[in-house]
Amino acid sequence: MTIRAARFASTGLASLVAVFAFGAAQADExxxxxxxxxxxxxxxxxxxxxxxxxxxxVTSFGATGQFYTQIKNGAPFEVxxxxxxxxxxxxxxxxxxxxxxxxxxxxxxxxxxxxxDGYVDGKGKVLSDNTYQHLSIxxxxxxxxxxxxxxxxxxLGLTDKVxxxxxxxxxxxxxxxxxxxxxxxxxxxxxxxxxxDGKVTGGSAWIVPAEMHDPIKQDAVILNKGKDNPAARxxxxxxxxxxxxxxxxxxxxxx
Length: 255
Known about the structure:
12 strands; alpha/beta; signal; AvModA-like_subst-bd; 5-stranded mixed sheet; Molybdate-binding protein ModA; D-Maltodextrin-Binding Protein, domain 2; tungsten; ModA/WtpA
């Protein structure tokens, strides 16, 4: 190799190293509180987000009401993906969010589900048949999908009839687990937990008509702890884009 070529190679290598160093310097982590129903979609979105932006998500999953308490007590979350629109709005009113950052990222769908094939009919008549021993729902005080489930039961006139059969999970993930493990014959879950690419992935389900409960509008917001983190803003922008929208819709959400 000539001296000139060697110098070029050395300079080129240095430039390449500098480019990678610059890229690494631009990559940030963002701490995200995610409603339990959105666990599968956000994990799929996280992989694309990291590949496309270099930023990394650090996610925690749980019930919306519990996250509210944690945020008010100083939890290090920078972005909040709620299972409702009222909790982010409340945090906004209380001055805990970045002004103008709140938006609806998905509209959830409720489903009555059993891990058993053929157990739940397409119109949910199994509920009024009352032959089951346990009905799983999420805590309606902390989880919007649990609240929606109680509204459906009230609409059907079944609140008192099923009261002794209710098995209550702390969040929608636990409500799903009660059914998937056979501890409850059926339960109200988020459609996203049992649905992928246009079909229910196992067991049997009734997709509850949206008019039977209040809309499950799910809002995202940047919290004050994330106001100076570029990755927080990048995530919110990414959730509004076409790649994220395709993933969200594939899990049965509306946009």
